[in-house]
Design a protein that fits this description.
Elements lengths: L2 H19 L8 E6 L2 H19 L2 E6 L4 H9 L7 E5 H10 L21 E2 L2 E14 L23 E4 L2 H11 L7 H5 L2 H12 L5 E4 L4 H8 L4 E5 H9 L4 E16 L7 H11 L2 H7 L6 E2 L10 H4 L13 E2 L2 H20 L1
Parallel strand pairs: 1-2, 1-3, 6-7, 6-8, 9-11
Antiparallel strand pairs: 3-9, 4-5, 5-8, 5-9, 5-10
Length: 350
């Protein structure tokens, strides 16, 4: 056989073998993930990003944002989607799904929806963590602190200022819950003019005692300074303050639950790789692992057995903390938020 013939034979052989040497369709060297930064993303790094990179040899390139959907939309509209997976809150999920900027999720490749806590699955998002807005107080200042959401409104039993998030969401729900509306009836009540009036009337009873906070870090600061006797707060912020030596206590009664979701933005360069990452991220043991670093509850019921007892007591989703909870209805706020925010702004100015 001549050199040319032999060369042709070798080239044909290498060509035939080439498909066997390439990476599978979903493989890639790096995956870009965008989340909310701070203690939350640090926990994700330890419990998820680094173990995923070790297990798959795919580097996780991290980005941070403040949750603004405009940043996601601008990237997609430019025709250059540089992020493969994004962690979004529930309102962003709803808006993004409606506007078609997130890919549909192939749930058969992720896991059984029945294993997810109610309200944490979507056609274009996979629930990842559950957090809560709760009532909190300083155990070092109050030996007999509040035990129910009704105590937030009892200025005779607990005189002093109370901190509230400067937002109608959660405050109107807390007001109705404290006024005796069962959790299952809150949004049905709030959907009526009479129910809205009832909620604002309840808030009127403490209006002169309210100190408003706007950023999550402010709530524990108000407690630490003694400016308020109690405050609504995000449970993760209370946990972080206690890690730094505080003795803040959470009142789990009528906590208001909310959740985050993993989504794949339209135009992601490798949606199969994005979905493979999400599947890994929501494995029961991986979800449970996050609770070692931050007190956000796993969205999957099957994760509970993998959560250490010392971590379980700090989670909104622990059975003993879920006895009288309410899940924030983000669809209700999407439909009614503009009107209620206008009413809230007017009420603040009165």
């Amino acid at each position: 056989m001549g050199y040319r013939a032999a060369g042709r034979m070798l080239a044909m052989s290498l060509f035939a073998l080439a498909p066997l040497c390439t990476k599978p369709a979903l493989a890639q060297d790096a995956l870009s993930v965008m989340s909310f930064g701070g203690a939350y993303q640090e926990a994700q790094r330890k419990a998820l990003f680094e173990p995923y990179a070790t297990a798959t040899r795919i580097k996780v390139s991290e980005q941070e944002y403040g949750g603004e959907i405009a940043k996601i939309k601008a990237m997609i509209e430019s025709g250059n989607t540089t992020v493969d997976v994004v962690d979004v809150d529930a309102p962003t999920l709803l808006q993004g799904c409606d506007e078609g900027i997130f890919e549909k999720i192939n749930w058969s490749a992720v896991g059984p929806k029945a294993d997810w806590i109610s309200g944490t699955t979507s056609d274009c998002g996979v629930g990842t963590i559950v957090y809560a807005t709760t009532l909190a107080y300083d155990g070092a200042r109050l030996t007999n602190g509040p035990t129910t959401i009704k105590d937030l409104f009892d200025t005779q039993k607990y005189p002093g200022k109370r901190g509230l998030w400067k937002n109608p969401a959660t405050n109107l729900e807390f007001a109705l819950l404290a006024d005796g509306v069962p959790p299952s009836e809150v949004y049905k009540t709030l959907a009526t003019p009479q129910g809205v009036n009832r909620a604002f009337a309840k808030l009127d009873t403490i209006k002169g005692s309210i100190v408003w906070w706007e950023a999550g870090a402010q709530a524990p600061q108000l407690l630490a300074s003694g400016e308020v006797v109690m405050t609504t707060a995000w449970n993760g912020r209370v946990y972080n303050a206690n890690k730094e030596g505080k003795d803040f206590r959470i009142v789990w009664d009528n906590q208001i639950l909310d959740s985050n979701f993993w989504v794949i933005p339209k135009g992601a360069k490798n949606s199969a790789a994005s979905l493979a990452f999400i599947k890994y991220a929501v494995e029961p043991k991986v979800l449970a692992g996050l609770t070692k670093y931050i007190p956000y509850g796993p969205v999957r019921k099957s994760s509970a057995e993998f959560v250490a007892p010392k971590d379980a007591k700090n989670l909104p989703t622990s059975p003993e903390n879920l006895t009288a909870s309410l899940t924030l209805d983000n669809a209700f706020w999407a439909d009614n938020g503009d009107e209620l925010r206008k009413r809230f702004t007017t009420w603040l100015a009165q």
